[in-house]
Amino acid sequence: MARTAAALHILVRTEAKAREVLEKLEKGAKFDQLAKRFSTCPSGRNGGNLGEFAKGAMVGPFDKAVFSCPLLKPYGPVKTRFGYHIIKVLYRR
């Protein structure tokens, strides 16, 4: 059976902006509020929620991070062709 995960993410254009967002999260800012404010991905308006997806469904670096980073802890920045992501994995199955 294919592995699946559910994750939130915040997509920004620059590594510097990604690090700034990560710093805000580490200081206690709410992930969904930062996603709505900063994310360039359409998922931003849903608090960055990508829902559940199968391993291999996302671009390589993003997929690798989702299936290896710690759960429930903001992780990144992860660079893809879309920009820089801060990822929060909700669960993996």
UniProtKB/TrEMBL annotation:
Q: Pfam families, alphabetically? A: Rotamase_3 (PF13616)
> According to its UniProt record, which reaction does this protein catalyse?
[protein]-peptidylproline (omega=180) = [protein]-peptidylproline (omega=0)
| Superkingdom field | Bacteria
One GO MF term attached to the UniProt entry: peptidyl-prolyl cis-trans isomerase activity
Q: Which EC number(s) are documented for this chain?
A: 5.2.1.8
InterPro entries to which the protein is assigned, alphabetical: PPIase_dom_sf, PPIase_PpiC, PPIase_PpiC_CS, PpiC/parvulin_rotamase
Which residue ranges does the record assign to the PpiC domain?
2-91
The UniProt keyword set, sorted, is:
Cytoplasm, Isomerase, Rotamase
Principal localisation: cytoplasm
Where is the protein found, in the record's own terms? Answer: Cytoplasm
What Gene Ontology cellular component terms go with this record? cytoplasm
Question: Which family is this sequence assigned to?
Answer: Belongs to the PpiC/parvulin rotamase family.
Q: What does this protein do?
A: PPIases accelerate the folding of proteins. It prefers amino acid residues with hydrophobic side chains like leucine and phenylalanine in the P1 position of the peptides substrates.
The protein's name is Peptidyl-prolyl cis-trans isomerase C
